[in-house]
Design brief:
This protein is an all-alpha fold. The chain contains 13 helices and no strands.
Length: 229
C-alpha cells in the first residue's frame, strides 16, 4: 500500500476519533469552525477517490459488448441458409464453382447477388469475374445501365462501364444527347466523361442549341459550362 494512501487513512481515522465531523448534530457550531469542516470534507473526498483508484488498479474488469443492439441487427440481417444455398447453386451453375457460405455472404454484403450476376452476364459479359462484379456494384453499374448502353450500340468493357458510372454518365443522358443530333463519334466514352464530370446536361445542350440556332460541339459545351460555373 502506498505511503500516500496510508497517510490518508490515518488522517481519516483521526477525524473519526475527533469531533470534527458531526453529521446530523443539532448543536450550534462556531463560525470559525466552518473552514475546518470544509477542509475535512475535502480530505474525506480525497481519501475515497484514492481508495477507488487503488482498488480499480488491482482488479481487471471484464469487457462487455457496449452495443448489443447493433450486434442483434447485424445478426438479423444475415441471409438465411436456404437463401445462401440457392444463391450458391445458381452461381455454380453460371460457372463460379462451389462458393463457401462465407464467400456468398461477402458477395451479398457488396451487393452482388445471383440475380445481379445473371443480369450482367445476359448483356454479354459472360466472363465477368467475382472481383469485377464487386467493382461494378461499387461503381453503381446496374444491369439496366449495361443493357441500355448496349442497345445504344456501345461496345464497352467492364472497366468502361465502371469509368462511365464513376463520372455519373447515364444511359438517359447519352440517349438524350443522341436525340439532339450528337453522334457516337462525338459521344465517345472520353467525351461523355468530360461532359458529365463538369456537369453538362442535355437540357443545357438543348437550350444552347435553341439560343444559337445550331448545335454546339462537345468542346463548345464544355467551354460554356466551364465559363459559367
Amino acid at each position: 500500500m502506498s505511503t500516500k494512501f496510508k497517510n490518508l487513512r490515518n488522517d481519516l481515522e483521526d477525524l473519526e476519533d475527533g469531533s470534527g465531523l458531526e453529521f446530523g448534530s443539532d448543536a450550534s457550531v462556531p463560525e470559525h469552525s466552518s473552514g475546518s469542516k470544509i477542509a475535512n470534507y475535502i480530505l474525506l473526498f480525497a481519501f475515497v477517490a484514492t481508495l477507488l483508484f487503488y482498488a480499480g488498479s488491482k482488479i481487471n474488469m471484464p469487457t462487455f459488448d457496449v452495443n448489443p443492439i447493433e450486434s442483434f441487427v447485424q445478426e438479423l440481417n444475415q441471409p438465411d441458409e436456404d437463401l445462401l444455398n440457392r444463391m450458391g447453386a445458381w452461381m455454380e451453375e453460371m460457372g463460379y464453382g462451389a462458393l463457401t457460405q462465407e464467400q456468398l455472404i461477402d458477395l451479398r454484403a457488396e451487393g452482388v447477388t445471383a440475380t445481379y450476376t445473371s443480369q450482367i452476364r445476359d448483356v454479354g459479359y459472360t466472363e465477368v469475374t467475382l472481383d469485377e462484379l464487386i467493382a461494378l456494384q461499387n461503381a453503381d453499374v446496374s444491369g439496366t445501365f449495361a443493357r441500355m448502353m448496349k442497345e445504344l450500340e456501345y461496345e464497352l468493357s467492364i472497366q468502361d462501364l465502371i469509368d462511365l458510372r464513376n463520372a455519373d454518365v447515364t444511359a438517359f443522358f447519352t440517349s438524350n444527347m443522341m436525340d439532339l443530333g450528337y453522334t457516337m463519334e462525338e459521344l465517345t466514352k472520353e467525351n461523355l466523361i468530360r461532359m458529365r464530370s463538369i456537369g453538362v446536361t442535355h437540357q443545357q445542350a438543348e437550350n444552347l442549341m435553341n439560343e444559337n440556332g445550331a448545335r454546339l460541339s462537345v468542346d463548345e459545351l464544355i467551354r460554356y459550362r466551364i465559363s459559367n460555373q
